[in-house]
Amino acid sequence: MAKMIVAGNWKMNASKEAVTALLSELKQGAVSVTNAQLVVFPPFPYLAQAQAELSGTSIAIGVQNICAASKGAYTGEVSLAMAKEFGVSYVLVGHSERRALYAEDDAQVAAKFIATQAMQLTPILCVGETLKQREQGLTISVVTGQIQAVIDAAGANSFDNAVVAYEPVWAIGTGLTASPAQAQEVHQAIRAHVADVAPEHAVGLKILYGGSVTATSAEELFTQADIDGGLVGGASLQADSFLAIGQAAK
Ligand code: PGA
What is the pTM of this model? Predict the structure, then answer.
């Protein structure tokens, strides 16, 4: 079976000192993770440090956000070409915090997804419903709608080189995790939706679960048929918990 992906989204956390310690611990511990591709997503200022520390290891590097434009007058933005110079291979696209706090809409998310693939990098498309939407029974339609928005803009074949992360908004940073059955239901619906338009890409599509994942919850989540790894926030800031989640990939 193909390796799972265990991705650590550091968000706007850490410091030079903390990054030095975390990267060195991850480097030492990475050999204990045999069934998952580990990926770290540091804040931009620490990319050079991550590249220097992680070169020659099995740990890949990603960025938490990117500008869809290639260069020019975009104050405060970072381009894909710049990220690529620092050894980046994955890009988070449409994280719920970007959608909610920075008003990123489906069109911007799709543009970032397309630009990422055009640079031969792999987008991790984040989708997920709010608590209100779940209570209204809208979970599957919200999530498949977010996927469809990218298919409309990028085409069905675009899921050939892409990863999806299902992150229920109500589970992010709250300590609440979707139950394995709740997560599996949505993951299955995502795969079925992609299969409708691109059956050849649906089977191998990696669909990660995110939202308060811990080493304990990962054990059972990762046994679900359509869960192919995790996108981890809080627990990725400590090497031991992040590595333990990686070890939960069987
Ligand atoms: P969390 O974050 O694990 O802290 O809930 C997950 C994410 O937002 O990617």
Answer: 0.97
